[in-house]
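Note to self: keep these together.
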Amino acid sequence: MMMFDLPDSQTLYAALVARDASYDGRAYVGVSSTGIFCRLTCPARKPKFENCQFFPTPGACIEAGFRACKRCHPLSAAAGNDPMVRRLLEALEARPTYRWREEDVARMGADPSTIRRAFKRQFGMTFLEMARQRRLREGFTTLRAGEAVISAQLEAGFDSPSAFRAAFARLVGIAPGAFRKDAQLLADWIDTPLGAMVAVACQHKLHLLEFADRKALPREVAKLQKRQPGGIGFGRPAVIDQAAEELQAYFAGKAARFETPLAYHGTAFESEVWHALREIPAGETRSYGELARSLGRPGSSRAVARANGSNQIAVMIPCHRVLGADGTLTGYGGGLWRKQRLIEIERELSVASA
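Structure:
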């Protein structure tokens, strides 16, 4: 089941507070303040609404950077009665940084193809993908702290430096060794209730802001690095601090206006579209056709849609405010469930400020 087929977040939060068993296995909650994801029936103390994001599968929770709760055991619950799936989950919990391979699965007496199908069906991702996501997040955190690549490699559980570099490059677009200490552009994480975001900024402007699981992120980071002679490094300039503070206020329902200075890397037409997106009031939406007409280009709705998709500063350039001509949710690089939640946040904020 896709997230946008589930009830809205307020309904899911009410189910969480009530520990409504009818949602068990249908929805999961990720808590941004703890980095943990749970079943809605979890006996733990309930988090604040603004710290919650809801997912349709445990795999989606893991991809967004959350770890499984040790009280309600959402992975074990999702495993059902399959003893081999449960055994592999226990093995992963015991060795979270081990580089699991299909040979390891076979040595445990399971057929790798059967396990792939079982995990995909029950978690939305394979066992090996689950293990890889967990290891890579640890590696990025180590690099961000200024440690050497070899330290990050070992922290992530990779025996081979080349394997770690390749996996890291698939995640963010460039190998860890290509990050430079003297770079003008610096990258860091920003944690939000809708998942971790990667931010890249210089001392004066924000150049990129994307959800970490966006498929286009590697291409966007590599493209940005190519445009900048000084490359990209790890760090947190004041611009990223400002962006993090404004995002925190936004997700808390306190403000929808962003003052963080932005750098536009696009054509003149794309920049025009991005400026127009920022003029759409929070709580309102537009169709591609309406946006094209507002620009004085009534026949350019497809070009507007392409420019919308090329935006690499999520939320602050609100491409999520554009819907299909019939008012339905259309493509959004961060996932349609996020697009729906962003629209919900802004509608709630506009009502509160009215």
